[in-house]
């Protein structure tokens, strides 16, 4: 692919539509850390890098390196100017490519993140004092959530990864499933419940709830 990219970029010095179509394709192959990945694909031109980062981040991007070689992105969002500053490839990301820190230059707002060994985000903290904590099981399912506002959630799953129980400070929810993974029963701590049946193709053919509603297409 590198050879093809070199050929296209060499032929399209004037950056025609074909050139940008090629950059669109390249955008799908760029991974964290973004700039090392682009250079690995022989993308060195600043304008091309800005175009690709714009495709990835969904904004019009302009960037430059500051005196500490930190990468500064400037972009417009809904006509409001903002600046996102990454501390650099080493400071902004861990060795697995997860973003662990970023800061806005103008107002000093920052976010810090922590991850488990599988790359799941387990902690997020911001400069305004807010924080979020997460826990996951061995299969990557979220089993616990807590935040600085005092909110918390607990989750349980069956062997197939279906959510079967969720608990919060103000209540709980329970689910049951058939052998094909279709939800057949839902119950909540306030006494409400729903029952479902499906045909062989997975289409819902029966529904009933605790309020007396019935939709029977069996």
- Based on helices, strands and strand pairing, what is the structural class? alpha+beta
> What's the end-to-end separation, in Å?
55 Å
- Report the radius of gyration as a whole number of Å: 24 Å
- Which percent band covers the strand fraction? 35-45%
The helix-strand sequence is HHHHEEEHEEEEEEEEEEEE
- Spatial ordering of strands, largest sheet: 4-5-6-7-8-9-10-11-12-13-14-15
Low-confidence region ranges: 1-13, 65-91
Percentage of residues in helical conformation? 10-25%
The whole-number mean of residue pLDDT values reads 76
Shape: extended
Biggest sheet architecture: 12 strands, antiparallel
Walkthrough of the structure:
There is one protein chain. This protein is of the alpha+beta class. Helices cover 20% and strands 39% of the residues. The protein has 5 helices and 15 strands. It has helices at residues 2-11, 17-27, 34-40, 46-57, 89-92; strands at 60-65, 71-77, 80-85, 101-103, 110-115, 121-126, 131-136, 142-147, 152-157, 163-168, 171-177, 183-188, 193-198, 204-209, 214-216. The strands form 2 sheets. The protein has a 12-stranded antiparallel β-sheet, with no helix packed on it. A 3-stranded antiparallel β-sheet has the order 1-2-3. Helix 2 (17-27) crosses helix 4 (46-57).
